[in-house]
Write a structure and sequence with these properties.
The chain is of the alpha/beta class. The protein is built from 13 helices and seven strands. Helix content is 52%, strand content 16%. It has a seven-stranded parallel sheet with strand order 3-2-1-4-5-6-7, with helices on both faces. Strand 4, helix 4 and strand 5 form a beta-alpha-beta unit.
Length: 281
C-alpha cells in the first residue's frame, strides 16, 4: 500500500517539531535550503522510526519549488503540506526577506495546489508580525492575494524601496501571507483540499533567539512580559496547532489565519504594552 505523503518545507526547530508530529505512518518529505542540514535531520528522523526522503529547495526559485511538488507527487498522494521556511530581519536584508517570505510562500501555494490530494490540507507558517502590521488598503490586499507569483515582486507595493528596514519588510510579507492563503483556499478547495496559516508569536527557536539578541530584542521581551502567557512559546505548541488544522477535526476550516502568540497581539492592541513601556521609562 502506498503511504500518504507529508511535506515539510523548512526543517529548523519548528519544522522538525512539525515533522515529528505529522510524520508517523506517512512518507515524510522534508525540504530545506541547506542540503547538509536536510540530510542530518532526515538521518535523525529515520533513527526515530520515520520514513523520510530529504530534498533541497530554495523557495524563492519557481523551478525548484515546482520540482519539489513534482517529487512529492511521485512518492504518493500528497495529503499534507506545511511550509515553515522563512528569513527573519536579523538574518537577511529586505530583498532576501521579500524573495523568501513573500514570493516563496506564493510559489509553494501555487505549485502544491497542483498536486495536493483530495481531502488534503496545508498550513503556512506566517507570524504575529503580520497581525501587528498596518492593514492593507482593499486594492493592495487584492493585488497581494491574487497576482501570479511570477509577477508578485514587480508590484510597486512590494518594491525594495518601499521598506526602510528588514523588520518592516518582514511584517509586510507575513501579513501578505495571510491574505494570500485566504485567496489560495479557493484554488485548493476546487481540489477538495484546505489551506490555512498559523501566525506564531515568540517561539523558542534559534531564529527567535537571534532576534532576542538583535536590535528589537528589548521590545520583544517587553511584548512577552505584557502578554497573557508571560512566556515564550514552544515549537511543540505550534506543531499541535498545525496538527489540528491538518486533521479532520478542522474539516470546516479553510482560508483562515490562526494566531498562536500567547496573547501578545491582544496586549499590543489593548494598550497593555503601552502601559508596560511607560512604567519602564
Amino acid at each position: 500500500m502506498t503511504n500518504d505523503v507529508a511535506v515539510v518545507i523548512g526543517v529548523g526547530g519548528m519544522g522538525q517539531s512539525i515533522a515529528r508530529r505529522i510524520g508517523s505512518g506517512t512518507r515524510l518529505l522534508i525540504a530545506d535550503v541547506d542540503q547538509a542540514h536536510a540530510g542530518a535531520v532526515a538521518t535523525q528522523l529515520e533513527g526515530e522510526g520515520y520514513e523520510v526522503t530529504p530534498a533541497v529547495v530554495d523557495v524563492s526559485s519557481a523551478e525548484q519549488v515546482a520540482a519539489l511538488a513534482e517529487q512529492a507527487a511521485s512518492l504518493g498522494p500528497v495529503r499534507t503540506v506545511v511550509h515553515t521556511a522563512g528569513l527573519s530581519p536579523v538574518q537577511a536584508p529586505v530583498q532576501a526577506i521579500l524573495a523568501v517570505d513573500l514570493l516563496g510562500v506564493a510559489l509553494v501555494l501555487e505549485e502544491f495546489a497542483e498536486v495536493i490530494a483530495p481531502s488534503g490540507a496545508g498550513v503556512v507558517i506566517a507570524s504575529m508580525a503580520g497581525a501587528l502590521s498596518p492593514p492593507f488598503a482593499p486594492e493592495v490586499a487584492r493585488q497581494l492575494a491574487t497576482t501570479p507569483a511570477s509577477e508578485l515582486l514587480a508590484l510597486p507595493v512590494a518594491g525594495v524601496d518601499q521598506f526602510t528596514s528588514g523588520t518592516q519588510a518582514y511584517g509586510f510579507a507575513k501579513r501578505a501571507n495571510q491574505v494570500r492563503v485566504q485567496a489560495a483556499s479557493v484554488t485548493w478547495g476546487a481540489r477538495g483540499a484546505r489551506i490555512n496559516s498559523i501566525s506564531p508569536g515568540t517561539i523558542a527557536t534559534p531564529m527567535n533567539a537571534a532576534e532576542f539578541d538583535g536590535e528589537n530584542g528589548a521590545l520583544m521581551r517587553m511584548m512577552v512580559d505584557a502578554s497573557n502567557a508571560r512566556r515564550v512559546g514552544t515549537p511543540n505548541e505550534i506543531s499541535a496547532a498545525v496538527e489540528f488544522l491538518l486533521s479532520p477535526a478542522a474539516g470546516f476550516i479553510s482560508g483562515i489565519d490562526l494566531l498562536v502568540d500567547g496573547g501578545v497581539t491582544a496586549a499590543f492592541h489593548s494598550g497593555a504594552l503601552d502601559a508596560l513601556q511607560a512604567a519602564a521609562r
